[in-house]
Amino acid sequence: MLYTDNRQNKIEVNEELINIINEVCEKALKAEEVNIPYQISLLFVDNEEIRDINRETRGIDKATDVLSFPMLDYPKDKVFKEVYKETKFNEIYLDGEELVLGDMVLSLERAKEQSIEYNHSFNREVCYLVVHSILHLLGYDHMEDEEKKRMRKREEEILGDLNITR
What we know:
The chain is of the alpha/beta class and 166 residues long. 46% of the residues lie in helices and 18% in strands. Strands 1, 2, 3, 4 and 5 form a five-stranded mixed β-sheet that branches. Helix 1 (15-31) crosses helix 5 (122-137), helix 4 crosses helix 5 (122-137) and helix 5 (122-137) crosses helix 6. InterPro entries: MetalPrtase_cat_dom_sf_prd (IPR023091), YbeY (IPR002036), YbeY_CS (IPR020549).
């Protein structure tokens, strides 16, 4: 289940956008073999708020597009489907029957700016950022070149399967 909270007023969050994001979440998680009920929180913010969160949590005093806060721990270079496929989770990771994967914070203001910068639709940019963030929640990273290649490949495969192109 995706839980959303809109804490900004610069970009309209309507039912269509929420439905698109829900579909992207479901397809991305299925592609990554998350076959159990899940819980993700998605907070919509503006550039000022994401800058504050980025500064407080990462020590980086600038606005960014999306931040991810995974709940599960992953060994280096391992992702959900490689670590937790057969796992029975204890109550520390569960909310009722749902596996708590973590939180995403998305600056819709920055997504709009980037959609213009990259010359594609706002919805495409939001979908890309959601997939990117979900992959972070599932253990992917892009700090090293090989990790980055692996993550970018998965992003493009998932977006391609959804017919979301640039």
